Amino acid sequence: MKFNTDILSLFDKGWALVTAGDLDCFNTMTISWGAMGTLWNKPTCTVYVKPVRYTHEFMDANDYFTVSFFDEKYRDALALLGTKSGRDSDKVEESGLTPVRIGENLVGYVQAAHTLVCRKIYRQDMDTAFMPEAERERHYLTEAPHTMYIGEIIGIG
Ligand SMILES: Cc1cc2nc3c(=O)[nH]c(=O)nc-3n(C[C@H](O)[C@H](O)[C@H](O)COP(=O)(O)O)c2cc1C
């Protein structure tokens, strides 16, 4: 598996969609925090999802998730998917992106430039006791801290 990228700007500048569920029942949201690396000798992709997000339910309920990266021209679609909740509307339909079945029964997007297929191998709720006070105050005064999901990358398309 090869994926050559500028990892420090991939999430931060490029954004991505994290998607969990199958075509009959899935949710997706925009992320700009993430990591790629190695754990337990496996290639991994880590994402951070706040419990308040609808996507969180899907991340917990499913053993797999996908992470999709897009060209700049889809920035508006990603902005929409990162401001609306799948709880309230069919935001994927509104975004104009086309969901597509990936692998066994996962969901990615026809328009994605790259899609990582990830098998969830670890999850942990972040603990505000172990983070800088500035970040605690900036991100978690009113909402519970992110859950970290580490996925083994089992496919790159
Ligand atoms: C550029 C951008 C990056 C974001 N990154 C994250 C992230 O890394 N983690 C997170 O929990 N929320 C992030 N969000 C917020 C969610 O995408 C947003 O709350 C979304 O509406 C949740 O949708 P859902 O309720 O359908 O899951 C980001 C939003 C934007 C616009």
Indicate the proportion of strand residues: 35-45%
In terms of per-residue confidence, which ranges show pLDDT below 50 for 5 or more consecutive residues? none
Report strand order across the widest sheet.
2-1-5-8-9-4-3
The biggest sheet amounts to: 7 strands, antiparallel
Here the CATH topology equals Pnp Oxidase, Chain A
What compounds are bound to the protein?
A: flavin mononucleotide
Radius of gyration: 15 Å
CATH class: Mainly Beta
> Ends: how far apart?
9 Å
- What structural class is derived from the secondary structure elements? alpha+beta
The helix/strand order is HEEEEHEHHEEEHE
Mean pLDDT: 97
Number of helices: 5
Task: Count the domains.
Answer: 1
**Shape, principal axes of CA atoms:** globular
* Structure summary, number of beta strands: 9
CATH superfamily: Electron Transport, Fmn-binding Protein, Chain A
* CATH architecture term: Roll
Level of helix content? Answer: 10-25%
Description:
- With 157 residues, the protein is of the alpha+beta class.
- Helix content is 20%, strand content 41%.
- It contains five helices and nine strands; from the N terminus they run H-E-E-E-E-H-E-H-H-E-E-E-H-E.
- The strands form two sheets. A seven-stranded antiparallel sheet has the order 2-1-5-8-9-4-3. It has a two-stranded antiparallel sheet with strand order 6-7.
- Strand 1 and strand 2 form a beta hairpin.
- 31% of the residues are buried.
- Bound molecules: flavin mononucleotide.
- The site of flavin mononucleotide (FMN) has 21 residues, from strand 2, strand 4 and helix 2.
- Flavin mononucleotide (FMN) binds next to strand 2, strand 4 and helix 2.
